Amino acid sequence: MALSTSNRTCRGVSPVVGVVLMLAITVLLAAIVGGVALNVTTESDRRTPVVARSTGEFVTGPSSGCGANTVAIRHAGGDPVPAGELEIAVVLPDADARIVDLPVSGTALSATNTHDPDNVVYDYCVGGVIANGGKRWTAGRALTFQLNAGGGTVEPGDTIEVRVVHTPSDGVLAAVELTARQ
Q1: What band does 4 get if pLDDT is binned at 50, 70 and 90?
Q2: For residues 72 and 130, what is the distance between their CA atoms, to the nearest angstrom?
Q3: Cβ density class 70-107: b for 16+ within 10 Å, e for less
Q4: Fold classified for 55-179
């Protein structure tokens, strides 16, 4: 009789251990699925907007006023992008610059708006969606800035590259190679 009593006692423990193991596996799987779901949500906030092939124009000349040496990059279609999520990288034949902390409150850049050791960008002439408090860069709208004739000037026929960068994702929205014309 003693053998049969101990067998019954051992059989009672087995279902309890099984239930505890099933609960542990369920909690572990829930934690893994929750972690993956949170990671996917965070990455979707860093998605690079899609901007259709953008066009640009660059006309050389003296920098008096906001007309000559002005670069304009036009959004050709795709997702709208707030001006506050944009940076502009400019690569000239012998220098480069980056326009940051956009939009500006008027049409003038401050020292915090440029990484420009070669004085490539003219401080007082930005326009379009990155100026006057900013707007969304949407189809048909342009962002404009002027290069400095005193430093980093290009001659007609020279090529510059302008990249519009989406800061939250570090993705390039537009990369436009422009040949300076007079």
Answers
A1: low
A2: 11
A3: bbbbbbeebbebbbebbbbbbbbeebbbbbbebbbeeb
A4: Immunoglobulin-like (2.60.40)
Structure tokens at 156: 């007609």
Q: What is the pLDDT of residues 118-171, one digit of tens each?
A: 888 888 888 889 999 888 999 999 999 988 765 556 677 778 899 999 999 999
pLDDT of residue 31: 86
Q: Report how far apart, in Å, the C-alpha atoms of 121 and of each of 17, 26, 55, 60, 76 are.
A: 72, 59, 20, 13, 24
| 98 within 8 A of 90, measured Cβ to Cβ | yes
pLDDT in tens, 29-39: 888 888 887 76
CB within 8 A of 151, min separation 6: which ones?
95, 118, 119, 120
Token output for 19: 């239930």
75 is written with which tokens?
């959004």
Give domain limits for the chain. 1-45, 55-179
Round the CA-based radius of gyration of the chain to a whole number and report it. 29
Q: What is the pTM of this model?
A: 0.71
